[in-house]
């Protein structure tokens, strides 16, 4: 991770727009900002490793961060891909001394980095305002995790990919296109698929008018995907 960055108006705006801070009153937000520093990451930079002593939690201001676990044999399992506005490791505010997974920049990213000891001190001395805001953010993450598990259980690989494509083209009617924010290998992990399963799903969707050109995805018939 690159050197600590100075706070400017752009970073302050991105900070205010994160899910964690969006529901806070200004006083609580300012107290949290006093616990934060800002840093740039380059692709594949390690934010922290599984088992490291936990010293900070993070919000993504721009870019993407991959969260994953690794077993003793080196096999990796993706847990989550955090994008702009999302936080990770914030559960550690309420307890825990080590990180339970690896965090790695998926591309160039800017992070807000919160000192856990300072945040815990504020959370214990402000009448519960900060703790409630963090708990609300964690509640949203739990709901997203439950939705993800249900999606994995209820939908085939092709349906999972189709749903993701439709979500990215929200607001576009009969046809649409967008640019993947990260590599397809990371998308596979996000959807709980092996890379070869993702490739097979795209091959099937090609018959329904989905064209893949590098990171550019073009969808000729949105209704065909909705019918899956």
Summarize the structure in words.
Strand 11 and strand 12 (216-219) form a beta hairpin. The protein contains nine helices and twelve strands. The N and C termini lie far apart (42 Å). It has helices at 9-16, 19-22, 26-33, 116-123, 129-154, 157-168, 184-190, 195-206, 222-226; strands spanning 4-5, 36-41, 46-48, 56-62, 65-70, 76-82, 87-88, 102-105, 109-115, 176-179, 210-213, 216-219. Helix content is 39%, strand content 25%. The radius of gyration is 19 Å and the shape is globular. The longest helix has 26 residues, at 129-154. It has 228 residues and is α+β, with helices and mostly antiparallel strands. The chain has two domains: 4-153, Jelly Rolls (Sandwich), CATH 2.60.120.10; 156-226, Winged helix-like DNA-binding domain superfamily/Winged helix DNA-binding domain (Arc Repressor Mutant, subunit A).
List keywords for this structure.
228 residues; alpha+beta; Jelly Rolls; Arc Repressor Mutant, subunit A; five-stranded antiparallel beta sheet; four-stranded antiparallel beta sheet; 39% helix; globular
Q: Runs with pLDDT <50, length 5+?
A: none
* CATH hierarchy, class of the largest domain: Mainly Beta
Overall CATH architecture of the largest domain = Sandwich
| Number of DSSP helical runs | 9
| Helix and strand composition category | alpha+beta
Strand arrangement, largest sheet?
1-2-9-4-7
Shape from CA axes? globular
What CATH calls the topology of the largest domain is Jelly Rolls
Instruction: Tell me the CATH superfamily of the largest domain.
Output: Jelly Rolls
Order of helices and strands: EHHHEEEEEEEEHHHEHHEEH
Mean pLDDT comes to 90
Nearest-angstrom radius of gyration?
Answer: 19 Å
The percentage of residues in β strands lies in 15-25%
Largest sheet: 5 strands, antiparallel
